[in-house]
């Protein structure tokens, strides 16, 4: 039975807004970066490092080293060690396997189970980061209901109860227009490719944040091996959002945001993910502050 990633859920609530992404994905040369996700109930953390024409990755499952990979632009190879053998006889019988990732040769060998553990601080920070991700406003209208306000608006949520107006709650509504900015890249990975090899390969060309975004759109077994052949398409879209804060069916504040997103489609599985690429202008703080501005106007007009 194929085991798949327990995907990170994105809920439509208005308590936060993320605007700290840069306009491009930068590679921090020679410095470890990491990203994490939950797969089959286990915390998976991937450490990656870009060094000149090579990149390395380490995969930890529940804090224990599971895979190590090194990719080279010079030789166009990916060398991966998978630490999954529990007995010497199995280790002696293990053979190297060869596959293709793009125009790279990917070599995989198996070694005895590792007892190397990840720094607990990295694991703790990874869990906090994952928990924060569920508070993001959705990019499109998936999961939202049409607003009573009309005009193409959708309902994001309600907030209020501030100390100076404890009985006042406002509703936040949003509509948007979007524009396709171009397809950036398409990848296809075959069966039995490892999470470590894929991470090392992508790290040769992309920044750590975008590598993590792409990897978590794929489906893996609990052992960190791709569950089945999958294709990924990366594209960019710009969104222009218009917001309205209403109290008792009347508008008390309006705002806008101009943003660009990466869109990742797993065309095999039919799933889609979004990642903020750049914040281009508009209301730059949280949605709760937007709602507060509406309540302030309401109180001032009473």
From TrEMBL:
Residues 1-21 form the signal peptide. It comes from the Bacteria. Keywords: Membrane, Signal, Transmembrane, Transmembrane helix. The chain crosses the membrane at residues 201-229. This is Uncharacterized protein. The lineage of its organism: Bacteria, Bacillati, Bacillota, Clostridia, Lachnospirales.
